[in-house]
Write a structure and sequence with these properties.
about 325 residues; mainly alpha; Serine Threonine Protein Phosphatase 5, Tetratricopeptide repeat; 19 helices; about 75% helix
Amino acid sequence: MSEGTLGDVTSSRTESLALAENLVRSGSDPDQVLQAARIFALEEHRERAIETLRQGILAHSRHAGLLTLLGDLLSRTGAFEEADLYFRQALESAPTDVEVRFRHGLHHARQGQWQAARLSYQEVVRLDPGHVRGWVNLGLTQAEVGERREAVAALLRAVTLDPACAEAHSNLGVLYAESGMRAEAVEEFRRAVALHPDSSEAHFNLGWALLAEDDVEQAETMLLASVRLDPANAESLYALALLHLKVGGNSRAVAELKQAIEIRPDDARLHYHLGVAYNNQDAVDQAILALESATRLNPEDARVHRLLGVAYDKKELPARAREAYRRAAALNG
């Protein structure tokens, strides 16, 4: 979800922090306090930013900017109840302030309060129909509450206002893909990659969509780029492994799945497909270990038990194989 920025600071980090401290010392002007807090936050001195805002609010208790930024920073730290207090005060002071409404929407979204977030973003775009990030986030929250058609309309409004908004194109692609509009999804993902070539997520989305279209070569190119841009992107590693399993590249799939499991050890899907890759190689002992891990993580997946039964059969463990097949049959009803 688009968070926006806290402000632009172009000087070096040391100079920025010195500037912020000077602003704090120079007096009680609320705009100076706000600027100082933004600098501290941008330079990852969040606690100093929060302290600065608390002091500023003591002198300017109804300044919407100070209240909003403090609420936003507290929300980012997970102090949601305290953040609520400052957002309420900000809204009382400036009920038509677009930035207050936008940050309040982000606060709700962080907590998974999608209906409340949707209402905040609806108010943002009512107050400012040209607010691109407002339309993007409205679309995302509408999708979360099941308003798919309205979500598409909001995202289309965002790209009409700003054709270079990669996030809007990317999320449009997701909605199109979920609706079975594969060609349209691929086109939106291509636009997102062109607009944001350094985005691992954009390359993943395009690679996943191309894989669904059986365009293996292009899909592999996009997914490899996604991993290169973010080696910790477990979903891209998983997608690459599925691609290599699809074309018989079991050794590559094993390597990718092992790397993904290091990042996300509790993901049952990864252990299951590692078991598939090992089973395809007749590496029975490794397959059993991977599949047993998958059953511990997700004991309700019938396909894991079924493949585990196959592996036990290969290992000539008939009693274990029968039990695995029995559990698979029971889960399938």
